[in-house]
Amino acid sequence: MDADVLALPGTIGALVKPLLEDDTLDAVFGSYDSEPLEPALVSQYRNLLHHFVHQTSRQEASTFWAGCGAIRKRSFEKAGGFDAERYRGAMIEDIELGHRMHALGMRIRLQPSVQVKHLKRWTLLQMVRADIFFRGIPWMRLLFQDSRASREIGDLNLKVSGILSVVLAWMIVFSLILSPWFPKCLYGLIPAIGLILVFNWPLYLFFFRIRGPRFTLMIIPLHVLYHLYNGASVLGGLFYRFFIDKPLPGLKSIGISLRKISKKVSG
């Protein structure tokens, strides 16, 4: 449990209950609630986005979240615990642990009904800095180093709609930059904006239902920014992959794994 969350009475019991009922289950984690304490726009957006992602993701998870979670002691020890050497601060140590657990065949369940209130106050700079340097790039490094991490694509923050939104957000930026010299670039602007709205419609509808139209309109630019710096995280991960990192010992890179899948499909 993170230090900056408020857990209601019964939260621990709700996390432990599935583990007591199912001996094959190794870990359980929950979600932030839909009523963040901090009223500021960025704080509301960031915490509600996290809530939405966890509420709409697969319950049979391939990773773990330590903000509100429980792991069996034997499973935690078998997986080797948190990697304190690799992650010396608060980064993605819980995600990486869940990744190792899943690779060992352990079962992890996302229990969306178990919720805690996040007390953190986010500023725009804090959000961008944390999402790029403490989450985005480390997560991309993990994906590019280990082909087994590719199983996480399609769930949580790695959904296909999010990946396509990153591409579209950068298309919008490049269209605007190049438009003074190539005016026809603007022709793709409206379709790109429209597709971003379509791909993220469930999220915007969620914001509309719980915070109203004004809030929803205000967070759309924030969400486009979110996609833009997620793209920057991918570039940062690629830089580490090609110039600094090596695939984890005994494992092939995600690129090799994806090429094999491509050959099987084409064959």
Give your account of this protein's structure:
This protein is an alpha+beta fold and about 270 residues long. Helix content is about 55%, strand content about 10%. Strands 1, 2, 3, 4 and 5 form a five-stranded mixed β-sheet that branches. The longest helix is centred in the last third of the chain and has 43 residues, at about 200-245.
Brief digest:
With 267 residues, the protein is of the alpha+beta class.
Number of helices: 9
User: What fraction of the residues are assigned to beta strands by DSSP?
Assistant: 5-15%
The amount of helix comes to: 55-70%
Computed over alpha carbons, the radius of gyration is: 20 Å
- The global form is globular
Order of helices and strands: EHEHEEHHEHHHHH
SS-derived structural category: alpha+beta
Report mean pLDDT, rounded to a whole number.
89
Largest sheet descriptor: 5 strands, mixed
How many β-strand runs?
5
Question: What's the N-to-C terminus distance?
Answer: 47 Å
What ranges have pLDDT less than 50 throughout 5 or more consecutive residues? 249-259
Topology:
Elements: E1 5-6, H1 11-21, E2 25-32, H2 41-55, E3 60-61, E4 69-71, H3 73-79, H4 93-103, E5 107-118, H5 124-145, H6 160-178, H7 189-199, H8 201-243, H9 254-266
Short key terms for the protein model shown above:
9 helices, five-stranded mixed sheet, 267 residues, alpha+beta
